[in-house]
Amino acid sequence: MEKRLAGDAALSRWKVVNASISGETTAGGLARLPQLLQQHRPALVIIELGGNDALRGLPLKASTDNLRQMVGAVQKAGARAVLVGMQVPPNYGPAYARQFERMFRKVADETRSPLVPFPAGRLLAMTRPGSSPMAFTRRCGPIRACWRPSGWC
């Protein structure tokens, strides 16, 4: 992401801090977030968590609450939160898949945060081992769309 931003004159001054941990859940992200906000004092935080919650069978209510609290902490710290939506594999069933996908829109709407929707057709690419960096790079385009000359969304 930092390389992509460097190619854009309006965004090249931004420093990217990748604080992600492979396998992280929303609970883990929520626990680490206060220290990260204090340490880095970001202007923008991209929250791309929730997939591992689903893979572990954690309750959607807990994931929703954790995402909501993370966005709240980011906003309280004076930064802008951007949520990145996700989908689950089809074997989770259509009802759960709909609820899971709607969770991100619900939190985005409640917190008035932008949502980068899950890119259609990329589920298989993202579920292959070792594909997370590729998926993250591909998402820079939609995240870039959140930028306006006056600042982030």
How would you describe this structure in keywords?
153 residues, mainly alpha, three-stranded parallel sheet, two-stranded antiparallel ribbon, 8 helices, disordered C terminus
The coarse silhouette is globular
Gyration radius, in Å: 15 Å
Mean pLDDT: 78
Give me the secondary-structure category: mainly alpha
Helical proportion? 40-55%
Largest sheet strand order: 1-2-3
User: How many individual β-strands?
Assistant: 5
Distance between the termini: 18 Å
Order of helices and strands: HHEHHEHEHHHEE
Main beta sheet strand tally, sense and closure: 3 strands, parallel
Number of helices: 8
The low-confidence parts are 120-153
Proportion of strand residues: 5-15%
Question: How would you sum up this structure in a few lines?
Answer:
The protein has 153 residues and is mainly alpha-helical. It has helices at 2-6, 26-40, 51-55, 60-76, 94-111, 123-127, 132-138, 140-144, and strands spanning 44-47, 80-84, 115-116, 147-148, 151-152.
